[in-house]
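Dear H.,

Thanks for agreeing to be a second pair of eyes. The structure we're designing against is below in token form, covering all 443 positions.
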């Protein structure tokens, strides 16, 4: 049988008796475990809870109590002990650690037009290469930089389901491995609104880094084994393995890695203020944006829009999507060890938000988006506050969830918008005002 051992908040699987440890499981045993997890996910989706009265009691890990019981009373202890151990616990048990890679950035401008969008912006399409091999993953970055704003400008960076989907601009080069149509998702990308506020917009398709097995505008024929074409497959081959280890990265961490590579590029672009990068995302890309901000402190501000389970929503709340219902491939395989006992997790999503401190975070929900658990997202933002208070900053500032369309908070801000699972002009108005206040771009 297996024995589970906790060390500094990290779950280790030890072998006892005749059962082999996870690291040396036979292929047959791994296939059987995968099948069990698929069945578990189907059952979890079929039995999800949308009744607040049925939410079971839970206890959250205290942001300011170390795994060894020490209290955190000042920033030094947070920075040197508590934050690193929380980050390591998320890496090992949730999103997965990144194996050794040595990317070397090379930028190739594929297209540029200083009079894009009727002269409002300069459009640039830049290919970011990281490795010598021609078949290695690369990013096709699409950028719009406002022409009338003083340079360098702050920038919103987010993943797309294909660059061509964010605008009707006919000059956009379609993202490889995507099937999104021109302007398919343009309503979620109000370019004119953002650019006129003095912000650049930058995006690339998540499929550039890894094809999403569960959609995201990718070719259905390539989804089942698409990860092998991306950065995780590349890293596994370089290490001489057929697949990532159980504590290594899933799709979300791979996408976050890609966002950090774009941050590398921003440091070379004189039109972009690399110290004022707001990373944002909606739904699954919101999960990736939060993890990117937690991992990479160069991101000055983070925005989570309806990111739900595995993003801003508390895992311990049995409401809407659950750990058991999440796609395995998005996370480290270790995460599903907790699918039937989430209370054993050493972390929860309020600690993910706390990792971003003291940088500002905006968490947004939608009133009809029960699958993403709006209350769980609010509570996660609320319980991240202690980390911000260490820095003398205010969090959401209220203990009760606000009514719809009533934003609350300061360094951690929150709103629940009337409506369903989407990102709307109302949401963007709030995010732009939040960025104005915290990135020093007040208009």
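And this is the sequence the design step returned. I haven't edited it by hand at all.
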């Amino acid at each position: 049988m297996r024995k589970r051992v906790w060390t500094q908040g990290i779950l280790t699987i030890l072998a006892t008796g005749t059962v082999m440890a996870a690291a040396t499981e036979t292929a047959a045993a791994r296939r059987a475990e995968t099948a069990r997890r698929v069945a578990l996910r189907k059952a979890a989706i079929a039995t999800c809870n949308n009744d607040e009265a049925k939410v079971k009691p839970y206890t959250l890990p205290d942001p300011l109590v170390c795994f060894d019981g020490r209290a955190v009373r000042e920033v030094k202890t947070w920075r040197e002990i508590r934050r690193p151990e929380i980050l390591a616990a998320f890496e090992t048990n949730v999103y997965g650690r990144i194996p050794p890679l040595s990317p070397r950035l090379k930028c190739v401008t594929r297209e540029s037009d200083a009079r894009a969008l009727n002269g409002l912006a300069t459009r640039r399409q830049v290919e970011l290469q990281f490795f010598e091999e021609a078949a290695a993953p690369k990013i096709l970055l699409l950028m719009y930089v406002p022409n009338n704003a003083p340079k360098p400008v702050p920038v919103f960076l987010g993943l797309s389901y294909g660059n061509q989907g964010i605008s009707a601009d006919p000059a956009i080069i379609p993202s490889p491995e995507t099937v999104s149509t021109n302007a398919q998702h343009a309503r979620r990308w109000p370019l004119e609104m953002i650019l006129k506020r003095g912000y650049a917009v930058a995006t690339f398709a998540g499929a550039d880094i890894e094809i999403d097995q569960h959609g995201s505008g990718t070719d259905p024929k390539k989804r089942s084994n698409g990860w092998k074409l991306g950065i995780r497959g590349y890293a596994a081959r370089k290490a001489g393995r057929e697949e990532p280890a159980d504590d290594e990265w899933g799709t979300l961490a791979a996408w976050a890695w890609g966002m950090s590579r774009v941050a590398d590029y921003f440091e070379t672009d004189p039109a972009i203020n690399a110290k004022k990068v707001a990373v944002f995302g909606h739904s699954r890309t919101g999960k990736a944006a939060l993890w990117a901000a937690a991992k990479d402190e160069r991101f000055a501000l983070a925005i989570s829009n309806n990111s739900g389970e595995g993003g801003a929503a508390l895992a311990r709340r049995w409401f809407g999507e659950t750990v058991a219902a999440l796609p395995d491939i998005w996370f480290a395989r270790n995460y599903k060890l907790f699918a039937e006992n989430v209370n054993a997790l050493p972390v929860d999503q309020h600690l993910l938000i706390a990792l971003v401190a003291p940088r500002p975070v905006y968490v947004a929900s939608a009133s009809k988006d029960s699958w993403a658990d709006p209350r769980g997202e609010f509570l996660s933002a609320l319980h991240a506050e202690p980390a911000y208070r260490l820095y003398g900053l205010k969090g959401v500032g209220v203990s009760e969830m606000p009514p719809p369309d009533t934003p609350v908070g300061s360094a951690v801000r929150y709103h629940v918008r009337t409506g369903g699972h989407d990102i709307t002009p109302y949401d963007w108005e709030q995010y732009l005002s939040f960025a104005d206040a915290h990135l020093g771009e007040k208009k």
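Two observations from my side: The mean pLDDT is 93. The CA atoms of residues 365 and 416 lie 4 Å apart.

Warmly,
E.
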